[in-house]
Design goal:
The complex is a heterodimer of chains A (181) and B (668). The longest helix of chain A has 17 residues. Chain A has six helices and seven strands. Chain A is elongated, with a radius of gyration of 21 Å. Helix content of chain A is 38%, strand content 19%. By secondary structure, chain B is of the alpha+beta class. Chain B has four domains: 166 residues, Four Helix Bundle (Hemerythrin (Met), subunit A) (Up-down Bundle); 229 residues, no CATH class; 137 residues, no CATH class; 100 residues, no CATH class. Chain B is 66% helix and 12% strand. In chain B, strands 2, 3, 4, 5, 6 and 7 form a six-stranded antiparallel β-sheet that branches. In chain B, helix 5 packs antiparallel against helix 6. The chains are: A alpha/beta (181), B alpha+beta (668). At the A-B interface, helix 2 of A face helix 10, helix 11, helix 12 and helix 13 of B.
Chain lengths: 181, 668
């Protein structure tokens, strides 16, 4: 085969390369939304806590250090987000099982959020007020609600986008949660 | 209970599809075997099989249309895309409103093009014709198995069919969407013919001027359809989406634009291959790429892979089939290309200043533009595959490279028609082009002064480029007429394909002008309007007179009555609507337009703010019509080129050659 013919293989080579990339891109699992922060610590924050009777006594602001110690869930919610409201009862059953859930109130109105928490049974240990959405951006939030599994060292181990319910909990999140304990 | 045709139409349609799959499989195999062993009977079977394939697919398509017209909601596809309240013309267009039906439309078009090849290629050497039809048969086998095994439009919901259908997406209930997909698909599928010619050439090794001359009209026709199809899509987006934009660089648009870019390169490269027997491998490669990108466009748009990479994984059966077929077609043809494409021998016989060079420049620029658009379109996908995160690529990226490169292409475009094959003297260009250059420079510099108070340097550039193309075409025309007795007598001597070039190139000038001036001079006001309030846009006043409630056939609407005054004098009334469709509950913006060649007035209703106030979009869009006018001119140019009698004449001259070719094969 002469040299010039080798050049004619270039288009084929490029195509094969593209094909491999395509194959990888297409075979990704649709439900597995990669989080930029997977296996990285929760970003640093220092935010006001939404007043609620269930909060630990005297807590005014909270930071990422307070999530450490126990495997926990971190839930991003807002009063304007309908599914967030629908998943609240399920979070309350989790709370009853002794699971710690922390809330991030994302781009919301403080007064409205307070009313919400008192009206629909507050499942959270506490919720921080992320009024300008800075923490949300650092977490890479792009759907609401989002729920993160955070291990004892405060490292994010899993991210679930969308409403949480018993089925999702039992099938995917509980195994991860238990393995970290 | 007696079964009548209404009830059986879907089964008959499905049966017809199965039969056409069998026929297309035969069409793929028999002529190819015949061509290999030199069997005349087998080679000639191609034409009959192609005809049969066409008849059965047409029948299947009619069955689906019939089910739609008769509201047979036991057919799942009908139930999810139609509704008994739809007017009959939307019921017909609903046939290609979803994935399954548009796939059937694609196959219907493919059958039509295959049939056309069977009719118009009688004069081709028999083995060539057999191979071309066989490749078309192969493509048909792929698509028919895809539709039958994964996306059957005739699937039933039995035993309890729904009472009424889920309705056609209101966005698609529109004249633009009735004609846009068929025209676009005609373009996409048309390139399968050129692809088939390219593969046949690779198989036989017969890659000469005659081959290029056979392929050219098909390529030009497909290109014309694609041009008009893209323009229709842009026009539709403009008046239907309610944002006032006409091109968004979104993946769906890019998917149709990619084959157009390579297709444009292809029709120019084919000219060189025909006239000068050069760029042969390059032409083949472009033919393969054009069809591959058409396939990519069809698949990606319909599978939703571009909006979300994960669309495939949600429906693995379709995804794997599509990918496998695509890999087979593109990988197979590129392998064939690598093994069989002619290797360039010796140096090319043309000077730096020659038509060959300019057409090569055209090809290189178009290919670069295509690659940049492709990268912009696929980069988010690739980034996701490599875990670089989720990224979307926006208009700034596309405009950054597209505008300068396209500008350069347009500047060079003026030289192409004026140059000679092999060599042109620089003096010739100076002699012929100094006047167009001076005139268009003057027009360009003066236009912004006259048109608006503020001088826009980019507008000057746009007008200069557009008039440069146009005046250079005129200069070329006059140069060609220099020796004729009268203007008319001279015109009559020029060939149709020359006029085709003039019209299509002028179309590019018109589109350039439209794109540039609309982007620069659009005035838009997104405002809150109370009843009785006035909004002023340049010399136009828009007054909101009243808001009314309207009941349509399958929707309810709020309508605003707006009086438009020009320089204080009454011009017309405009009635934009905000519709709510009953079956699906979705809302739609009906834009109200005042159309003219020099400007469009565009009024769309946004959101209701109070009982008597709405958010309104009021736009003044200068020269926006020129964008689509230009595309229509390109389409018309394509028709003229194909109608040129030289293709018919050439066929007659070649008839004896055909006999010789066949005879030789038989003797082997």
């Amino acid at each position: 085969m002469n040299k010039q013919r080798l050049f004619l293989f270039i288009p084929l080579a490029i195509f094969v390369l593209l094909g491999v990339l395509f194959w990888r891109g297409l075979s990704l699992d649709p439900n597995e939304m990669p989080s930029a922060l997977l296996n990285k610590p929760v970003p640093v924050f220092e935010l006001p806590v939404i007043p609620a009777p269930e909060n630990p006594q005297g807590l005014i602001t909270a930071n990422q250090e307070m999530l450490k110690g126990k495997v926990s869930l971190l839930n991003v919610w807002a009063t304007w987000c309908l599914p967030c409201k629908q998943e609240l009862p399920f979070f309350n059953t989790l709370k009853a099982q002794g699971i710690q859930i922390y809330g991030i109130n994302y781009k919301d109105d403080n007064a409205e959020a307070q009313r919400w928490l008192s009206e629909f049974h507050n499942p959270f240990v506490f919720s921080v007020l992320d009024a300008d959405g800075r923490l949300g951006v650092n977490l890479g939030v792009f759907g609401y609600p989002e729920t993160y599994v955070v291990d004892k060292q405060g490292v994010i181990r899993y991210k679930h986008i969308g409403e949480m319910d018993a089925q999702i909990w039992e099938k995917t999140i509980k195994p991860i949660f238990d393995s970290l304990n | 209970m007696a079964l009548d045709f209404v009830q059986l139409a879907p089964e008959m349609g499905q049966f017809a599809l199965i039969l056409s799959l069998c026929l297309s499989a035969a069409l793929f195999v028999l002529p190819l075997v015949g061509a290999h062993y030199g069997s005349n009977v087998l080679m000639q079977s191609g034409r009959s099989l192609a005809t049969g394939f066409f008849i059965f697919v047409t029948f299947a398509f009619c069955c689906l249309v019939y089910s739609f017209l008769h509201d047979d909601f036991s057919v799942k596809y009908v139930a999810s895309n139609s509704n008994s309240l739809l007017p009959y013309y939307y019921k017909i267009s609903a046939v290609w409103g979803g994935h399954e039906g548009s796939l059937l439309l694609w196959i219907f078009m493919l059958a039509g093009w295959t049939f056309a090849v069977a009719i118009f290629s009688r004069s081709l050497p028999l083995d060539m014709q057999a191979r071309v039809l066989a490749v078309m048969g192969f493509v048909a086998v792929g698509f028919l198995s895809f539709i039958l095994f994964t996306s059957n439009p005739f699937d039933r919901i039995l035993p309890i069919p729904p009472q009424d259908g889920g309705d056609l997406n209101p966005l698609l209930q529109d004249i633009g969407l009735i004609i846009h997909p068929p025209v676009l698909y005609m373009g996409y599928v048309g390139f399968s013919v050129v692809f088939a010619f390219a593969i046949a050439a690779l198989l036989t090794g017969r890659l000469d001027s005659a081959w290029a001359r056979w392929s050219r009209p098909w390529a030009i026709m497909a290109w014309g359809f694609l041009s008009v199809g893209i323009a229709l899509g842009s026009w539709w987006a403009y008046y239907e989406l309610g944002w006032g934009g006409w091109w968004f660089w979104d993946p769906v648009e890019n998917a149709s634009f990619l084959p157009w870019l390579v297709g444009t390169a292809l029709i120019h490269s084919l000219a060189v291959t025909e006239k000068r027997s050069l760029f042969k491998s390059w032409t083949l490669l472009l033919a393969i790429f054009t069809f591959s990108l058409s396939l990519l466009g069809t698949f990606l748009v319909r599978s939703g892979v571009l909006t979300s990479v994960h669309a495939f994984a949600n429906d693995p059966e379709r995804g794997v089939f599509i990918l496998a077929f695509f890999l087979l077609v593109v990988g197979g043809s590129l392998t064939l290309f690598a093994l069989r494409a002619p290797v360039v021998k010796g140096s090319a016989g043309f000077n730096l200043l020659s038509r060959e060079t300019f057409l090569l420049g055209n090809n290189i620029l178009l290919t670069i533009i295509m690659i940049m658009v492709l990268i912009g379109t696929l980069y988010p996908l690739v980034a996701d595959a490599l875990s670089l995160g989720k990224i979307s690529v926006g208009p700034p990226y596309f405009n950054l490279f597209f505008l300068p490169l396209m500008g350069l292409l347009c500047l060079l475009m003026a030289f192409g028609p004026l140059s000679n094959w092999k060599r042109t003297s620089g003096m010739q260009f100076v002699k012929l082009l100094w006047k167009p250059w001076a005139i268009s420079l003057a027009i360009g510099l003066i236009f912004p002064l006259v048109y608006r108070d503020k001088y826009e340097i980019l507008a000057a550039l746009t007008v200069f480029i557009a008039s440069w193309i146009a005046t250079a075409l005129l200069a070329d025309l006059f140069y060609r007429l220099r020796n004729s007795d009268s203007f008319l007598a001279g015109l009559r001597k020029l060939s149709l394909s020359y006029f085709a070039m003039l019209v299509a190139h002028a179309g590019i000038a018109a589109t350039t002008l439209g794109v540039g001036l609309t982007s620069i001079y659009t005035e838009q006001r997104d405002v809150r309007m109370e009843v009785g309030q006035k909004v002023t846009v340049v010399e136009y006043d828009f007054i909101l007179n009243k808001l009314t409630h309207i009941d349509g056939p399958n929707y309810t609407a709020e309508e605003a009555l707006i009086t438009v005054m020009k320089d204080g004098k009454f011009l017309r009334e405009m009635k934009p609507q905000k519709r709510r469709y009953l079956a699906s509950g979705s809302t739609m913006t009906e834009v109200s337009l005042d159309v003219s060649l020099m400007r469009d007035l565009y009024v769309a209703m946004g959101e209701p703010l109070t009982e008597t106030a709405w958010a309104m979009r009021v736009h003044l869009k200068p020269f926006v019509r020129w964008i689509w006018l230009g595309a229509l001119m390109m389409g018309f140019g394509a028709v003229l080129a194909v109608a040129d009698k030289r293709y018919r004449k050439a066929i007659k001259q070649e008839s004896p050659v055909v006999e010789v070719a066949v005879g030789k094969l038989v003797n082997e």
